[in-house]
Structures are given as structure tokens and as C-alpha cells.
Write a structure and sequence with these properties.
The complex is a heterodimer of chains A (335) and B (282).
Chain A lengths: L3 E12 L3 E12 L3 E5 L6 H8 L7 E6 L2 E2 L4 H7 E4 L11 H11 L4 H14 L15 H12 L6 E5 L7 H18 L2 E6 L2 H7 L2 E6 L2 E6 L1 H7 L3 E7 L6 H5 L4 E7 L2 E6 L2 H14 L4 E7 L3 H9 L10 H17 L1
Helix pairs in contact in A: 3-4, 3-5
Chain B lengths: L7 H17 L2 H21 L2 H7 L7 H12 L4 H18 L2 H10 L2 H6 L5 H29 L10 H26 L5 H17 L15 H4 L3 H13 L6 H29 L3
Chain lengths: 335, 282
């Protein structure tokens, strides 16, 4: 073991010969860390997970999980991993307890052990009270917790979580985050998760990879990525249509000015001191600042930096994403 | 940290139990699935009473025994209800197994299939659990139908022994395996239940009527006979009739029935398992 629990090399998936969902992706996940794939819908996150959990075969490239090749030694990989899928996959007609036992049986865990472990896990995710209720009566958060318990039944070395908080309310999301942190802290488990929530990646992940259109754009810890941006960010609008980047660039401490959709995004050192200087400089030119905001770098800024798009501000491309996502879904199902 | 049990049957049995639980834990669905074939048999078998048509409409002067003889010539028994009730056993099997493909479509859609595929369960066990559960369900229904048929007036042949009953279950078991494999095979890559419905509807009628289940193949037109003679339902129904209601057993024909059904079910089940290796995960 090199300390890397996942090593992916040039991993690629092309659906139906033309739709490239994952495009020569290379990355490592270290033992014991929470590694996040951050990207918009349709970026290729789920396809990557499906290859790593041996449900999809890569078109090109390879990866090892727990030291085993995902194609040649798929059954070894399957024994050592746990999966919490994006969908609610528990059988609605069965009770929570029956669902966990079913999962245990799929791993061939003897009944004496699986009974004990199922009860422990139900306790962990606080579903003991509801264990004999049919899953169809569960709320979204309860189901997600049940999926989590099912994914842990074989005591996996690595747990894959695909969009673990998709569609959950804020409170339930925080609740799921607690469990994820607990797994890392108490059990030293490695977690590989995908998300399109920036705050989720920021709050949970030790390292993240930003993925878009099937390619990894950058990898690093959230702090690393933020500090790479080099300083604070001032966003401002003015009552002037012409490009005034030149004026702003001359101000002290300003590192970079970009004009995005009529707004100026300015990278500066010491934002609190520099903002008044910029306003001053513009006023001297007769330009009035109509709006200004100062922010410490966030993952959203990192995202913007590498993709040229804001995660929160995707209105103009929502239609593209939708089309691409539907195409991907279809391809994934058809396969 | 992780324990490994080498028993591949474990996952198979767990998945089979899951399917069965979905069936018997829903009392309403369970009841419907049992009552439906009984209604079929009661209404169809009693309403379309061919024996009565012949005996009640005899021209004056034609003796009753002649009518009986005609019935025996055509159906092998003088009682059409018995003839058709046996055919119902194959029908019940067909009706139950043809929806087995549907469950794999749902499992795929709901993501359950993906989850199972990420566990060490053998790919073939996923398919085989569905074949097995459809078979168990069918045989339970067959038993209930058999009891009702008897209550409604099925006339057993004088040569009937309990051993014949074993033969009946054996051949119906083969039919279940074969038909459920067939429908699963057709569903293995499908993601739309609408497609599956269309397939079921398409195959349902020819399998049902191009067979001897309701009517003897000898009386069918020449173009239809070869089709009926390829239909596994024909062989199964013939074997069950010989074992249950015919006065004399034609050993050669019975052997042929069993041989044909063994080959049919083994071949189709093998193909579906090979396809499951190939197409379940890709």
C-alpha cells in the first residue's frame, strides 16, 4: 500500500461511442481522507463513481481501489467498498431492518454477525425506533440514513457517497454531515464523495477535485485552492458602460481585474484597505460605484476561477446542463 | 476488517427471499394473484362447456356414448372442464413468469440493481434469484389452482397415483424456469417498463393459444401446428394431462415431453445467465 487507497489513471468513459462522460481523469485518494468530487450536474461525477465501484467498465484507462484493479479484480474491490448511491435504493416494501439484513446477506456475512451489526448501525443512524416500519413510511432524511447504514454493513475500508445530501433540507443535511465526519474520526474510514454543493465540499472534504465536462480542472485542499487565488475578492458595479479595468489596475494592491457580465471581479491584497482606494480612484475619473462587495475567497471563487462560471449563477447555462444530463442519463441506462 | 464468505448461494437466497417477501407481505396482491386464475378457470372452464354443447345438442337417435366417444377422440377425455383445467396450470405459470422481467426493469430504474452490482454477489445470482422466485410463486399458485380444479369437478384418471403428482410438479417446474428465464432475458437491458409490457403482450397470446392448453393441436390448421408443436406449453400441458386425467399413459410421448422441457429450460436458463454476465454491468 502506498497510502493511496484509490489511484485512477486516465480513467475514461464514452457512452454509445460518442458521449464522453469522463475524459482521461487521473487522481489519487489517500487512506483516511474525505475526498470530494465537486462539479455541476452532468460533469461526470456519478459516472466516475460507477466505474470505481465496478458497476461500469471504463472505456479507457484504469484505476485501483484498495490495491485491486477495478476491472480485473472487480470482486475483490466489491468486498472492500461500501456504496451510498444517489437514489434511494432501499426496498420500500421491506422494513429498515430487513433492508440492512438483505445488504449483509449480499456480502455473505453470517447471520449471527449481521444481526448484531445491523442493530449497531441502526443505533448509529438513529433509526432503531423505526427499524420494523416499512421503508415507504420513511422521510427523505431517514432513507438517506438507512442507505448510509446499508453502505457500512460490510465494514468497508472506503465508503463511496454519491451526492449524499441531494434534495435534503438544511437541517437534515447538517445531520448527514455529522455522520460523515464521525465515520472519518471514529473509524478512520476513507470517504469518496461527489457533490455539487460548494459549502458541503468546503465543510467536509480534506481534498477536492473540481470536475467539469468530464475533466478534472484542479485538485487540492479547500484552503490550498482558496489561497491559490491569491487574496480577497472585490466585486463592483459602476454607472459606466465602457471598460474601466485599466483604471482599477493602477490602484495599489490590485492583482487582477476581470470583467464578468458587466461586473468587475478584482483580486486584491488586504481587501478592507484596498476597497476605499479603488472607490477613490474611480471617483477621481468621475465614475460612480453603484455596488460593491468584498469577500474572502470561497470555493465558489475557486470554481469561478477554473471554470469561468459561477456555481450559483448558472442560469444562462442551465438549459445546456439539463440537455447534457438527460443525454447522460439515457446513455447510462441504455448501456 | 472485512470477512469473506465464499458461499455464493447466500446472496442468491437473500435476493430470492426479497422477491417473495414483496409478494406475500402484500396480502391484497397475494390474494389477487391467487384468485385471478381461479376466476379464469371457474368462468372460462365452466362457461365454455364443450361437453355440454355436444351432449345437449345431439340429434334424435344418436346415442350418448357416441358423444362421449367424440369427446374422447378429440380431447382424450369426455370432460372438457378437466381438459381445460389442466391447461390452466400452464396458464398460471405463464401469467406469473411473464412479469418476472418487469421486476428487473424496476430494479434498474430505482437504482437497486446498481447497488447490488456493487456488492460481491455473483451476477448470475441476480438473475437466478428472479427465476427462482417466479418459479416458487408459480408453483404455489399451481397448487392452489389444482385444489380448486379438483373442487370444481376435475376428474382424475383411474390410473392416477401420488407419484404422478410429482411428475406434474417436475414438468411445471421446468416450464417455470424456462419461461421466467425467457422473459428476464428479454428485459435484461431494458430500462422502460412500457417496452416490457409490449413484449409481454406480444408473446402472451401466441404462447397461450398456439398450444394445446385449450384445444388439441391435431384439430389446428396445418400452418399453426408446427408453431404449437414448438411451444413449451404444449409439451407441459400434454405431460400434465397424461399424468392427471388421461386413462392411458403414452410412455413414449411422456418421455418426449420431459426431454423437450429439460432441453428447453436448460438452454434458455443458460442463455439468460450468460447474458447476465455480459449485460448486467457494462
Amino acid at each position: 500500500m502506498t497510502g493511496n487507497i484509490i489511484e485512477a489513471r486516465e480513467l475514461t468513459k464514452v457512452f454509445n461511442g460518442y458521449l464522453t462522460a469522463v475524459d482521461h481523469v487521473t487522481f489519487e485518494v489517500r487512506e483516511g481522507e474525505i475526498f470530494g468530487f465537486l462539479g455541476p450536474n452532468g460533469a461526470g461525477k456519478t459516472t466516475t463513481i460507477n466505474m470505481l465501484i465496478t458497476v461500469l467498465k471504463p472505456t479507457e484507462g484504469t484505476a485501483t481501489v484498495c490495491g485491486h484493479d477495478i476491472v480485473k479484480e472487480a470482486s475483490m474491490v466489491r468486498r472492500k467498498i461500501g456504496v451510498v448511491p444517489q437514489e434511494y435504493t432501499a426496498d420500500e416494501d421491506l422494513t429498515g431492518y430487513e433492508n440492512i439484513i438483505l445488504c449483509a446477506d449480499l456480502y455473505g456475512i453470517p447471520r449471527e454477525i449481521s444481526k448484531k451489526r445491523a442493530n449497531e448501525l441502526l443505533e448509529l443512524v438513529q433509526l432503531t425506533k423505526f427499524k420494523d416500519k416499512k421503508v415507504e413510511t420513511y422521510s427523505g432524511g431517514m432513507r438517506r440514513r438507512l442507505e448510509l447504514a446499508c453502505g457500512l454493513i460490510n465494514r468497508p475500508r472506503i465508503l463511496f457517497l454519491d451526492e449524499p445530501t441531494l434534495g435534503l433540507d438544511v437541517q437534515t443535511r447538517a445531520n448527514i454531515w455529522e455522520y460523515i465526519k464521525l465515520l472519518k474520526k471514529e473509524y478512520g474510514m476513507t470517504l469518496f464523495m461527489t457533490t455539487h454543493y460548494l459549502e458541503e465540499a468546503d465543510a467536509l472534504c480534506d481534498r477536492i477535485a473540481i470536475i467539469d465536462h468530464g475533466k478534472i480542472l484542479v485538485t487540492g485542499s479547500p484552503d490550498e485552492l482558496k489561497s491559490k487565488l491569491g487574496g480577497d475578492i472585490i466585486t463592483l458595479s459602476v454607472n459606466e458602460d465602457r471598460n474601466i479595468s485599466g483604471i482599477i489596475e493602477k490602484v495599489e494592491n490590485v492583482r487582477e481585474v476581470r470583467r464578468i457580465k458587466g461586473e468587475y471581479r478584482i483580486k486584491v491584497k488586504d481587501g478592507e484597505l484596498t476597497a476605499p482606494l479603488i472607490i477613490e480612484a474611480l471617483r477621481n475619473e468621475g465614475i460612480k460605484v453603484t455596488r460593491l462587495s468584498l469577500s474572502k475567497p470561497s470555493l465558489n471563487d475557486v470554481y469561478l476561477e477554473y471554470t469561468g462560471r459561477s456555481m450559483r449563477d448558472q442560469e444562462e447555462s442551465v438549459e445546456d446542463f439539463r440537455v447534457r444530463r438527460i443525454a447522460l442519463r439515457r446513455a447510462r441506462r441504455r448501456r | 476488517m472485512e470477512e469473506v464468505s465464499g458461499n455464493p448461494l447466500h446472496g442468491l437466497w437473500a435476493l430470492t427471499i426479497r422477491e417473495l417477501k414483496k409478494w406475500y407481505k402484500e396480502p391484497f396482491v397475494f390474494f389477487i394473484s391467487i384468485i385471478q386464475p381461479v376466476i379464469w378457470m371457474g368462468l372460462f372452464g365452466k362457461a365454455m362447456n364443450i361437453s355440454a354443447i355436444i351432449t345437449n345438442n345431439l340429434p334424435p337417435g344418436v346415442p350418448q356414448w357416441l358423444a362421449d366417444q367424440m369427446m374422447k377422440q378429440t380431447f382424450g377425455t369426455s370432460d372438457y372442464f378437466s381438459y381445460m383445467a389442466v391447461g390452466m396450470l400452464s396458464f398460471v405459470t405463464l401469467f406469473t413468469t411473464m412479469f418476472s422481467g418487469m421486476s428487473i426493469v424496476w430494479d434498474r430504474r430505482l437504482g437497486f440493481l446498481n447497488k447490488v452490482l456493487s456488492t460481491p454477489v455473483a451476477r448470475s445470482a441476480i438473475i437466478f434469484s428472479k427465476i427462482l422466485s417466479a418459479t416458487i410463486r408459480s408453483l404455489v399458485q399451481v397448487s392452489i389452482i389444482l385444489i380448486f380444479a379438483f373442487l370444481l369437478g376435475l376428474q382424475l384418471s383411474p390410473s392416477f397415483t401420488p407419484i404422478n403428482l410429482l411428475g406434474v410438479y417436475a414438468i411445471l417446474f421446468l416450464l417455470c424456469i424456462g419461461l421466467s428465464s425467457l422473459f428476464l432475458m428479454l428485459a435484461i437491458r431494458s430500462t422502460r417498463w412500457e417496452t416490457q409490457m409490449a413484449i409481454v403482450n406480444l408473446l402472451n397470446l401466441p404462447l397461450m393459444f398456439a398450444s394445446n392448453a385449450l384445444f388439441p393441436t391435431d384439430a389446428m390448421p396445418d400452418w399453426l401446428k408446427p408453431i404449437a408443436n414448438l411451444n413449451p406449453i404444449t409439451y407441459t400441458t400434454d405431460a400434465v394431462r397424461q399424468l392427471l386425467i388421461f386413462e392411458t399413459i403414452n410412455i413414449n410421448q411422456l418421455m418426449l415431453d420431459f426431454t423437450y422441457m429439460c432441453i428447453f429450460s436448460a438452454a434458455i436458463a443458460s442463455i439468460s445467465i450468460i447474458l447476465s454476465w455480459k449485460y448486467l454491468s457494462k
